[in-house]
Amino acid sequence: MAAPTGNTFNNKYNPEYAKQCYKLCLLGAIDKDLAGFFEVDRDTIKNWAKKHPEFAEARRAGKMQADAEVASKLFERATGCTVRKQKVLSNGDIVEYKEELPPETRAMEYWLQCRNRDKWNPKQKVELSGDAENPLAFLMAEVAKEAEGTSPLPNGS
């Protein structure tokens, strides 16, 4: 039976949960997933991590290892890599071969955006300065300056 929602200090914890938590985190589980698996509220997972150091360590280590594995694969795609493949020939023989995958632009962009947000953020911040009453005053001044000494007629007469 699941713990009641909001019962964040339940006493359902079992020391075996640390191993299970580690394995689930290796598979990419987040706190919401852990809560569903253990049939408790998500806040209970956080409280177990505070009260039980072995659970907190298993949770941290599992998430860290999973993140490192994903980062490694992302890096491989961003820089290019070699993969092993198999092909079945028309006579039924299976042949193994290696294929070079070129660097993938989207993986490079994502990697750089995560590692160096200031330089690679797709959302650029632009600061405007000038008169708050008339924000286009600088542009109008340039147009007026260019218009001096010119004729309003197309041929300049």
How would you characterize this protein structure?
The structure is a single chain. With 157 residues, the protein is mainly alpha-helical. Helices cover 52% and strands 10% of the residues. The chain contains 7 helices and 2 strands. The chain has helices at residues 17-26, 31-38, 42-51, 53-79, 105-115, 117-120, 137-147, and strands spanning 81-88, 94-101. The protein has a two-stranded antiparallel ribbon with strand order 1-2. A hairpin with a 5-residue loop joins strand 1 and strand 2. Helix 2 (31-38) packs across helix 3 (42-51) and helix 4 (53-79) crosses helix 5 (105-115). It starts with 16 loop residues before the first helix and ends in a 10-residue tail after the last helix.
Please describe the structure with a list of short key phrases separated by commas or semicolons.
157 residues; mainly alpha; two-stranded antiparallel ribbon; 2 strands; flat
Classify the beta-strand content into a percent band: 5-15%
Radius of gyration: 30 Å
- Largest sheet, described in full? 2 strands, antiparallel
* Overall body shape: flat
Major sheet strand order = 1-2
Mean pLDDT across all amino acids: 85
Number of helices, counting only DSSP H or I runs of 4 residues or more: 7
Q: What distance lies between the first and last C-alpha atoms, to the nearest angstrom?
A: 93 Å
